[in-house]
């Protein structure tokens, strides 16, 4: 049995606002799911790097190529390399800091 509405209590939210709200909630839900997947993937990567005693590696197949490093604070740092750039360019930056 459906409840009858009391006059004056009808939902006066415009359809455009309701549709925009529904679209936002759907995207926010997708983003939250993706953040959980990213966190899980990060944990698996950290565990694998620690198990194999790898502090950093270069992935030339990524576009652009990247250097993935373990850090104390964030856990993982991904550095995108520019064309013609190599690991030594980043090592000297870290030494200078």
Q: What's the helix count?
A: 2
Query: Uncertain runs with pLDDT below 50, 5 residues or more?
Result: 92-97
- The overall average pLDDT, rounded, is 86
Overall shape: elongated
By DSSP, the count of extended strands is: 3
Major sheet attributes: 3 strands, antiparallel
Helix- and strand-based class? alpha+beta
First-to-last CA distance: 70 Å
| Multimeric status of the protein | single chain
What is the N-to-C succession of helices and strands? HEEEH
Q: Which radius of gyration do the C-alpha atoms yield?
A: 24 Å
Helix content: 40-55%
Q: Report the sheet-strand fraction.
A: 5-15%
Lateral strand order in the biggest sheet? 1-2-3
Structural commentary:
- The protein has 97 residues and is of the alpha+beta class.
- It is built from 2 helices and 3 strands.
- It has a 3-stranded antiparallel beta sheet.
Q: Keyphrases for this structure?
A:
single chain, 97 residues, alpha+beta, three-stranded antiparallel β-sheet
What's the helix and strand layout?
Layout lengths: L14 H37 L4 E4 L6 E5 L5 E5 L6 H10 L1
Antiparallel strand pairs: 1-2, 2-3
């Amino acid at each position: 049995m459906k409840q009858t509405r009391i006059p004056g209590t009808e939902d006066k939210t415009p359809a455009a606002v309701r549709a925009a709200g529904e679209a936002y909630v759907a995207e926010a839900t997708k983003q939250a799911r993706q953040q959980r997947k990213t966190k899980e993937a990060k944990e698996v990567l950290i565990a694998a790097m620690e198990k194999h005693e790898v502090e950093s590696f270069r992935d030339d197949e990524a576009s652009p190529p990247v250097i993935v490093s373990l850090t104390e604070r964030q856990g993982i740092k991904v550095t995108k390399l520019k064309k013609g750039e190599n690991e030594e360019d980043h090592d000297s930056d870290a030494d200078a800091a």
